Amino acid sequence: MRTDIILSGVGGQGILSIATIIGSAAINEGLYIKQAEVHGMSQRGGDVQSNLRISSDPIASDLIPLGKVDIIISLEPMEALRYLPYLNKEGWIITNTVPFVNIPNYPDQEKLMEQIKNLKHSVAIDVDAIAKSVASPRAANIVLLGAASPFLGIETDKIEDGIRRVFERKGEAVVEMNLKAFQAGLKYAQESLNK
Amino acid sequence: MNNKHLLLGDEAVALGAIHAGLSGVYAYPGTPSTEITEFIQAHPLAEERNIHRHWSTNEKTAMEAALGMSYMGKRAMVCMKHVGMNVAADAFVNSAMTGTNGGLIVVAADDPSMHSSQNEQDSRFYGKFAMIPVFEPSSQQEAYNMMNDAFSFSEHYKVPVLMRLVTRMAHSRAVVETGAVREMNKMSFPSNPGDWVLMPAVARKRNVKLIGQQVDFLNESEKSIYNKYVDGKDHSLGIIACGIAYNYVMEHFKDGCPYPVLKISQYPLPVGLIRRLADECDSLLVLEDGQPVVEEMIRGVLDSGKVIKGRLTGEVPRTGELTPDNIISAMGLKDEEVYPPCELVVPRPPALCQGCGHRDMYAALNEVVREYENSRVFSDIGCYTLGFLPPYRAIHSVVDMGASITMAKGAADAGQFPSVAVIGDSTFTHSGMTGLLDAVNENSNITILISDNLTTGMTGGQDSAGTGRLEQICQGIGVAPEHIRVVVPLPKNMEEMKQVIREEIEYKGVSVIIPRRECIQTARRHNKQK
Ligand SMILES: Cc1ncc(C[n+]2csc(CCOP(=O)(O)OP(=O)(O)O)c2C)c(N)n1
Ligand code: SF4
């Protein structure tokens, strides 16, 4: 198997914890993994992204070439589209629908959503609302991970194990909350696929 | 014990150093090198062994302290971002002249494409300049393995070794398999104590010795396990791929590259291997991250008039980091058709955090300087550099750490009034203090704002060398106590801040205003820890 992923969002939204969980699941499965992160200046309200590659064969480059990304997982709709040239034509965008507006010239939101819906494969999900209703607003990124999980090429229960490992230190309540968030995201994605 | 770890390149360097028996890391933070030291600071073995891991005031003090530890026979490492090499350069170049006792590795993390830096300088030049070997890992595993090898190299030849990383190596994770953990060196004086006194007579002798060693270094490169000649069927092209460029080549050839490839991860350049590649191939392509260091060198090595393609000839972009995409046409491959960029997407530049004290500082400063016809604000490097962007548009220069104070002084010397400097607390102790002494000595008519957030914010909140002592330091340097003014940058204190800034601009001499309020990111962290 091989899955090339771009995680995107705005600094502070928590894309790296999504990467950590997928990474943990991938390692446990004995897969190869490479993950190019962004650190530094861009952490303050600027755009951030991370390239995450998992594969059963050795991986050469830390960066994914243009047109080769299988899934863009984004915590913000405009940030999902920023990396469009990297998406392969059969690839998926899994994105939060809630815009993070911290610039004066943020694009028209309806047009943004229209662009996303017009792509061949996409799941648009209000992770903030779902996180709030089933778990905690802080688990929004895990709801998104749940929605992306059918596309990762790793079984969902292995990703749940990853969640357990990553949040173990913070206690059982935090683990449970995040598992709930994950399940809610997964359910949403499955329902929207069956539509 | 599980010996497989998912590590950043930086962390692989750190763990490799710890396992190689490191006794001290010396560093000043700087993206993308910061995580090396932070990893060591958090590592249990570093605590158990009491490895030195406190931040230094700047890269030069770090380099010198590490050299001192090496003098005592212990393994030491210095870490910095590429521009830190400029600050450390005096000590660095001369450490090649003294030579080392315990192994000494200097890690320089370059930032091609300037993700978070003011230039794209290539540290391999420094290695060549100082005439010492350079290691440039192509994978996190190699980075880990190289640390022990580089320390051994350093101890065998008694020279410092430069380890060059680039952002994509430093900040990318992969699985690393770790090896044996070596003991730390015992303390020992150098066997050649006289060599450490670089008076001209000694320096001349040392220079001859170092130049003589160049042949040994070259031989090491020719047979290094990190330099690898991989043959291919199609000899119309030979590819020289340095460091991570090797991965970008292999990305395109799942079943092996049709062209011979020479992977280079240890310098000086293995000219024997390069000649072999040149003899066997019709043309050469040089792929290297950063500046065309190797490309320029091999033009001198090969006198055959062979076609050499690279950054200098335009087959590869002259600037910016390499990517799997921008080497495609140079290798004669075709670009794939991809989605065009989405037109709706607009840039999202970084901004000062909401509630940051620098915001209130700039809000007050902007209002006061507007009362003058032609004010100039010389700024410096740190979060507060973002004061250049809207809504503040408050500053006129950002050059290198410390330049705010000295440029304000030079401008005042030229007749500028008001001449204002804005500098952060960590940048002030890094390189601002010496400039302040110049200004005091001439009673320059400048106003300095040391925007003190009690931390090194830009790089993620490391300890700042002068925290709690800035007033004392300024007084000690000679600023009149009544012109060292502390304010709390909060919206409710706006009028007071404006008044203080106004008064100190009007004072004809050196004044220092210290707006002091903790960075809200570190404050949040501290609250959580409570
Ligand atoms: C020579 C050099 N070393 C390190 C850096 C990386 N760097 C940029 S700003 C900065 C620290 C800034 O801290 P401070 O002056 O306290 O300002 P703050 O970011 O906290 O506002 C560092 C370490 C650099 N640009 N140049
Ligand atoms: S990290 Fe700290 S110093 Fe930097 S902008 Fe945010 S609050 Fe201000």
Description:
The complex is a heterodimer of chains A (195) and B (530). Chain A is built from seven helices and six strands, in the order βαβββαβαβαααα. Chain A is of the alpha/beta class and 195 residues long. In chain A, helix 3 links the parallel strand 5 (87-96) and strand 6. The longest helix of chain A has 23 residues, at 172-194. The model of chain A has no long low-confidence stretch (mean pLDDT 94). Chain B is of the alpha/beta class and 530 residues long. Chain B folds into three domains: 4-223, Rossmann fold, CATH 3.40.50.970; 228-331, Rossmann fold, CATH 3.40.50.920; 357-527, Thiamin diphosphate (ThDP)-binding fold, Pyr/PP domains (Rossmann fold, 3-Layer(aba) Sandwich). Helices cover 38% and strands 16% of the residues of chain B. Chain B is built from 18 helices and 18 strands. Chain B has a six-stranded mixed β-sheet, with helices on both faces. In chain B, strands 8-10-9-12-13 form a five-stranded mixed β-sheet, sandwiched between helices. A five-stranded parallel β-sheet of chain B has the order 14-15-16-18-17, sandwiched between helices. In chain B, strand 5, helix 7 (140-157) and strand 6 (161-166) form a beta-alpha-beta unit. The mean pLDDT of chain B is 96. Chains A and B meet through helix 1, strand 2, helix 2, strand 5 and helix 3 of A and strand 1, strand 7 and helix 10 of B. Strand 2 (32-36) of chain A pairs antiparallel with strand 7 of chain B. Iron/sulfur cluster (SF4) binds at residues 352-353, 356, 358, 383, 453, 457, 519-521 of chain B.
